[in-house]
Every structure is written in structure tokens, then in C-alpha cells.
Design goal:
By secondary structure, this protein is mainly alpha-helical. The chain has 9 helices and no strands.
Length: 196
């Protein structure tokens, strides 16, 4: 009788192995050969699931997004609209080890998407999703009466996305300056400016 292989389970092992390597040693060490070795597979077996580095990186991105969604489902969000928006924005910046790893993967993914058609479509989907989220957060503040209805929501959603991306990059590069407290101060300051 042929051996039944649980492909979803194998892909999960591969993703978790890749994640562990990235988290402890950096993404540059997460080669297909290294991941296969750490996952107890041959390189050929791993290539059965991912034929190249871009496919693997795309899968790792999906894995990190699923982890983020799972994490957000376990948060007790504030009922105060302004606080809930601040909490949501803080979930998007690297103020913990997990989120630092996720941000590092995102940056590598974004840079590689500039030369990879396979990654470019996903990058566009993710950035579009970020703009939709920013617009939804601004709508929450407008409905709560925190922001004037006459603001240019198209400009503000892009500006908010740029601020969060900028904070994320700087928090990754200079965690000594962009501490959790400093990051919270910057986000709070921007929201207070929006709400005045």
C-alpha cells in the first residue's frame, strides 16, 4: 500500500522551519538547502513543494500573515474608537520579536517583488489591503466624531500607511531609538493631530 503523505502538514513543517531559521539567523540564511536540511528532507523533496526561492518566500509571507491574523483574534480591543485605532496601528509595527521578524520578511519580500512577477502581484495585493485598512480606521474616527468629515481621506489613508511603514523600517533598523514607548508616542501624536 502506498504511503499517504499529508502535504499540508509537510508545508507547515517547511514554513515553521524557515520561520525558525529567519527568526534566529536572518532571512539570508533561509536557503532552500538549509530549510530542507533542518526540516529533515532532501532538497529535491522540498523542491516538490517550492520550485524556487520566490515560491518559498511567498509561502512564508502567507504563513506570517496567518500568524498575524491569529494573534489579532486573541487581542481584547478597546471599545474607545481612538484607542482601538491606536491599538490596531501598533499591531502593524515591529514592537516585539515576532513582529520584527515579520517586518524583516516583509522588507525582503517587498524588495524582491521589484524584480519578480510572482511576488509583485502579492505585494500589490498586500499594499492595497493596507490602504483599505487605513481608510477603514479613518472612517471609524470620522464616525466617532474624532476627525472632521471634510478631510481628504484618499490622502490621509496614504499618509497613515507611509507613517506606519516608515516607523516599521526605522524600528527594525534602530530599535534603540524606536522603542515601544517612542513608537506609541509617535502614533499617538499623529492621531492627536488628525483629531484636532
Amino acid at each position: 500500500m502506498p504511503k499517504i503523505v499529508d502535504h499540508d502538514h509537510k508545508r507547515k513543517i517547511i514554513a515553521e522551519t524557515a520561520w525558525k531559521i529567519i527568526e534566529t539567523e536572518g532571512i539570508e540564511r533561509a536557503s532552500i538547502r538549509r530549510i530542507a536540511s533542518e526540516a529533515g528532507m532532501s532538497t529535491g523533496a522540498l523542491r516538490h513543494y517550492f520550485s524556487n526561492q520566490d515560491e518559498l518566500l511567498l509561502f512564508i509571507m502567507e504563513y506570517f500573515l496567518a500568524r498575524g491574523r491569529e494573534r489579532s483574534e486573541n487581542i481584547s480591543w478597546s471599545t474607545n474608537p481612538l484607542n482601538a485605532v491606536r491599538e490596531t496601528l501598533l499591531e502593524l509595527v515591529p514592537v516585539s520579536q515576532d513582529k520584527q521578524t515579520e517586518t524583516g520578511v516583509w522588507l525582503v519580500f517587498a524588495i524582491r517583488s521589484l524584480t519578480s512577477a510572482a511576488l509583485n502581484a502579492k505585494k500589490d495585493e498586500l499594499t492595497e489591503g493596507e490602504y483599505i485598512l487605513m481608510e477603514a480606521l479613518l472612517e471609524i474616527l470620522i464616525k466617532a466624531g474624532c476627525i472632521n468629515k471634510t478631510i481628504n481621506i484618499e490622502i490621509e489613508k496614504l499618509r497613515l500607511a507611509v507613517i506606519i511603514e516608515g516607523i516599521s523600517i526605522h524600528a527594525l533598523l534602530r530599535p534603540d531609538i524606536f522603542t515601544i514607548e517612542k513608537t506609541e508616542q509617535i502614533i499617538t501624536h499623529h492621531l492627536n493631530e488628525l483629531c484636532n
